[in-house]
């Protein structure tokens, strides 16, 4: 069990950029560069539409910000596409000389508030610029998963791309507004684009829960360790008791999991930027040290920070 030691807040937008007026949501860290770390995140413009940008920090000391990229790496999609109302980074895969950035695209809806699907963009210049693989998503609703998909985490083992993704299972009316219920499912791919999805549930909702997302997986001593964000039913946006916390599970094969949230090793602080909510963990290893990047209050409105295992 890792007892995470919180190191503090890293970044909050200062509202000086046209596309970044609030939030720094879903931090995804790339530590495969030589001397710096690049952390991708989603930020919202004045109309609430999310785009993806990045900062660069000192290697091993992400509170030392070296560079804030002034423009988003991708703009919203053209009208009618799956990401025409915004996008958020969910996973980064380094595959040879190519970086694949997976992201959740947003659509506004009329019957329900929004729809999500997962797309991918590819970089051939070490992550400085990205180009969409295509105008459509690679993981969307299908015959037996008819609602939506969202976050995704990927590791590659023996040429098999293993993915754990958020799957919406229903929308339920609550206080006059439809709210989504979602859990985590498992899928496999041979190339990161075409995914075999057979409905295998990785982490199921508890009786009092309504949402599980943002899996992040490490393999240690022949065991898979997963951290994820989980929330309760009800007024989770404003009630800290119902808001996102970070859960934990272990597995021998990456498919069947044993959940034990008491071993997540991290809880909300007593006060400050992450006292009401901790969400969207992204765990990485660098030089035998583990780092967890995560959001605090307001789904990233207060920015993102990090914790370490030592």
What is the topological layout?
Blueprint: E1 5-11, E2 22-30, E3 36-44, E4 50-58, E5 61-68, E6 87-95, E7 98-108, E8 114-123, E9 131-132, E10 148-157, E11 160-174, E12 177-189, E13 195-196, E14 201-203, E15 209-220, E16 223-232, E17 245-251, E18 257-259, E19 279-286, E20 289-295, H1 297-300, E21 304-308
Antiparallel strand pairs: 1-21, 2-3, 3-4, 4-5, 6-7, 7-8, 8-9, 10-11, 11-12, 12-13, 12-14, 15-16, 16-17, 17-18, 19-20, 20-21
Give a description of the structure.
The chain is an all-beta fold. It contains one helix and 21 strands. 1% of the residues lie in helices and 55% in strands. Strands 10, 11, 12, 13 and 14 form a five-stranded antiparallel sheet that branches. It has a four-stranded antiparallel sheet with strand order 1-21-20-19. The longest helix has 4 residues, at 297-300. It is globular, with a radius of gyration of 18 Å. The mean pLDDT is 96.
